[in-house]
Write a structure and sequence with these properties.
Lipocalin, about 190 residues, 13-stranded antiparallel β-sheet, mainly beta
Length: about 190
């Protein structure tokens, strides 16, 4: 979906157009027992403003309660359905999602790069705002435009304490990789 004028337009995206995922690591003495998680958000919206085919602004927001555990790599055993439910519950507690139900990124500067663009902006999460840089790669494929944005976000930048167990010998790593990939058809 988009709104357009002669020189400016806005592309909007949601879950039907791509994926918003978080990738966690694991640390601590017992890290081999833990899972590196891929979490997906099922309620989110991305808006990209363009002027003369150059991006001028980006906003991405998500409902934290929409988090789903997609997979866990590593660990002693595969994640079961009930374990995924526990992981989701623990993640929502870390986010304090009942008190702070949304996360939102707003760009403040857009720089064109060789393979796309770089966004400088502010992420609002857990009642805290912190600067974040997002690298966006663009690619044309079979009549469509694909955008993939990647950023690293640290729990500690937002006053979040990563989930841990066994007296801290197994815990989620502070940095989390965030990735959003969307595709827009040429005729959209």
């Amino acid at each position: 979906m988009s709104s357009e004028s002669a020189s400016s337009k806005t592309w909007t995206f949601g879950p039907a157009d791509g994926d918003l995922t978080l990738h966690t690591g694991v640390t601590g003495r017992a890290s081999k027992m833990g899972h590196r998680l891929t979490l997906g958000m099922t309620e989110w919206q991305l808006a990209v403003d363009w002027s003369d085919d150059v991006p001028t602004g980006v906003t991405l927001s998500t409902e934290l309660a929409s988090l789903q555990v997609r997979k866990g790599e590593g660990g002693l055993t595969p994640l079961s359905g009930p374990e995924k439910a526990v992981v989701k519950s623990n993640a929502l507690k870390v986010f304090d999602a009942k008190k702070f139900p949304r996360a939102e990124f707003r760009s403040t500067d857009v720089t064109v790069t060789d393979d796309g663009f770089r966004l400088a902006g502010t992420l609002s999460l857990h009642g805290t705002e912190h600067p974040v840089t997002v690298e966006v790669a663009t690619a044309g494929e079979a009549g469509a435009q694909r955008l993939t944005g990647r950023a690293e976000v640290r729990h500690s930048d937002f006053g979040l304490k990563p989930f841990s167990m066994a007296m801290g010998s197994l815990k989620v790593a502070d940095p989390v990789a965030v990735e959003c990939t969307v595709t827009r058809g040429r005729n959209d």
